[in-house]
Structures are given as C-alpha cells and as structure tokens.
Amino acid sequence: xxxxxxxxxxxxxxxxxxxxxxxxxxxxxxxxxxxxxxxxxxxxxxxxxxxxxxxxxxxxxxxxxxxxxxxxxxxxxxxxxxxxxxxxxxxxxxxxxxxxxxxxxxxxxxxxxxxxxxxxxxxxxxxxxxxxxxxxxxxxxxxxxxxxxxxxxxxxxxxxxxxxxxxxxxxxxxxxxxxxxxxxxxxxxxxxxxxxxxxxxxxxxxxxxxxxxxxxxxxxxxxxxxxxxxxxxxxxxxxxxxxxxxxxxxxxxxxxxxxxxxxxxxxxxxxxxxxxxxxxxxxxxxxxxxxxxxxxxxxxxxxxxxxxxxxxxxxxxxxxxxxxxxxxxxxxxxxxxxxxxxxxxxxxxxxxxxxxxxxxxxxxxxxxxxxxxxxxxxxxxxxxxxxxxxxxxxxxxxxxxxxxxxxxxxxxxxxxxxxxxxxxxxxxxxxxxxxxx
Length: 437
Hints:
By secondary structure, this protein is an alpha+beta fold. The protein has helices at residues 4-38, 43-58, 60-70, 78-84, 86-89, 99-107, 111-114, 151-169, 180-195, 197-211, 248-266, 299-313, 317-326, 337-353, 361-374, 381-400, 406-424, 431-436, and strands at residues 115-125, 129-136, 141-147, 217-218, 231-235, 268-270, 278-280, 286-288, 294-296, 328-330, 378-379. It is built from 18 helices and 11 strands.
C-alpha cells in the first residue's frame, strides 16, 4: 500500500517529467529556429543534441534508451548517433562530496583506510554510476565505481509512472490481453539490478571466470571484500575508446566470439556492449567492462536460443517459428499459426540467403519483433535480451566491420551447446524434453 509520502513523490516526479519534456520541446523549437537563421548544423544534429540533454535531465531510465539508440548508426543518421554517444559515459558527474560519508556508512571504513589515492574527477560518468581512478594502500591501481545518490528511487518512480501509462494503454482495443504490466515488471527488475553494485560484482566475477582462458579477451578482476550496494572496486584497465587500428577487426571478432561463448555456453548475456563498455585494444585484443546489465539465461532458454540460431543459420523457418511460440510469455488463443509460421519462414529465408555484406541483425530482429507484434505474441525477457545483446553489439561492429559474419561465427558455439545438451540428456530423452527441463 502506498503511503502519502509515496503518492506525493510520484506526483512530484510526474510533474517534473512533464515539465522537463515540455522544456525540452521548447528548447528544441528555439534551437531549430536559431539554427535555421545561422545555418550552422543539420537539423537532425540539433535535435539529437537537445534530445540527449533532455534524456540526461529525465534520469537513468531514459538515458538507457538513448545509450541503445546511440549504437544504431545504421538506423539513425551518423550525426544523431554521435550526439547521443555522450550518454554512454560522458554525463555530468554527481557531486563527489557525498562519497566519503556514504563509503563509511556502507563499509564502516574511511576512504583513507582503504585507498592511498582516489581521484574525485571521474574517468567516465554514466546514468547509474561514475568510475574513478584510485590506488589501494599497497599501491595497487584500481578503478572505483560509485553509484549516483538517489538513483534507485528515481528509477522506481519512473517505472511506476510508465506502469501507470501501461495500465491505461492495456484497456485500449488491440492491447487488451497483452501482458504489458508483466513485461514492465521484468524491465523494472533489469534496471534495478543495475543499481545494486553487489550484483554487478557477482556478474563480473562470473564473466571473468568464464573468459579467463580466452587469449584475446581482457576482463577486469573484481577486488574482493570491497563491493557494497553503492561501491565497486576492480582492476584498473588503461583503455582508450577512440583507439582504432589495423587490428581492430581482429579484436571485434574476438569480442563477438566471447559474446557467443557467454550466451550459448555459459548462459550469460552482456546486454550493454556499446562503445562505452567494449574497447578494441592493440594486438587484436578486446576489453569487456561494466557488468551491471548481465542477464542469466535459464538452462532451457539457453538451449532453445541455440536451436533458434541454428534454425536461422540453416534456413529452417518452421523451427524458428515453433521455438518463438514455445518460449513466448504470451500467445493469443486465436493465433493463426500457419500464417505466423509462413511469415517467420519468409523472414528467416531472407536472412539465411543474404550475402554477408547484406545481412543485418537489426533487420532480422526488427522484422521478427514486427511479426510477433502483429500476431500479439510477447517473448520472454530472457530470450529477448539475448537478441538485444546482439543488436547492441552490431551497432559497434558496423563502425569497424560492416561485413562481419554473425551467422558463421555463431555456428561452432551453437553446435557445442547442443552437443552438451545431448550429452546431458538421459538415454532416449529427446532434445525437446531436455530443453523443457
């Protein structure tokens, strides 16, 4: 039951959101008029600049949307994506003055008892937290991630507002029966998971362990005993996001293979590998950082996603259609399955027969989502996040190697995953039964 304080906070957030959106629209109008007179920039770039500022003011829930859009240079004009890139790690940092007291409250220690040095100027500053250079008392260089104060409360209020809008929308013709609120609950859980840095520390350890033997992947090690809800201490990697060279393609391929290894073999999905979290290093190595948005795939979903990808690679539309329905969170009782299967089959056929240079994950994913939408099928969050992870990664890949073969690179990992699944089945147990366990 909501308290009077909760209702007031929600109403205040609603008014603030409305005011910020209105102010952003007014700022956009003025900027476009001024720009038209001075003819300095393309209107799209002006609009993107104002949009990024407005999203930043609205807070972390909306910044996440901008971060994902910034990766999609194939869907947005280059100048628009460039303007939105600042949302990935170049936001205005939170005041550092509150950090010592918060650290003492959560660890029982003063900063000087743990760190010989801690730079108040952040190396990067994003929607949830900022990252600072530091050194431990023994001189070990580390990076300290510091959560923004009040961010959990802001996300909670934003999701409540969005849930209220979804509740109204679910009463509209055409939307009745769709599990909009259940989908928002999953979205809320994903966002709030990023707020607790103890969960990110656990995810970082799992990713580090999974990729420790990978010859071309660098993952920062988590410093044990210093992770709290608001602070995370990890190995410091000296990284340059702008570095590009002849070995960048090799590094990109290594990163894609690492992503496939995590998804198909480990059941882990790094959903946030945009340009602020994926670094292509000299020597053909890649560094993966920031594990706040790492989702875990249930065993059955991991196997089913591998089967789905195999169907895509082998032009097996009926398999992809069947798996889409079997893994869905909601399927309308009136589904015309034959028509749905035919539409998915056409989509898979186009993707499977496309030459490498013409295949785009985004085209296939958006097409699949559109087919699902028209047939009122809602996918599970875990299955959808695995797809979105590839969508975000492709945004980075397009800048370096637009002809990267996503299908071919996936096949060895898909086959290993399915072989392991068969090996784990009881004698005579079909694959479908194993995946359903």
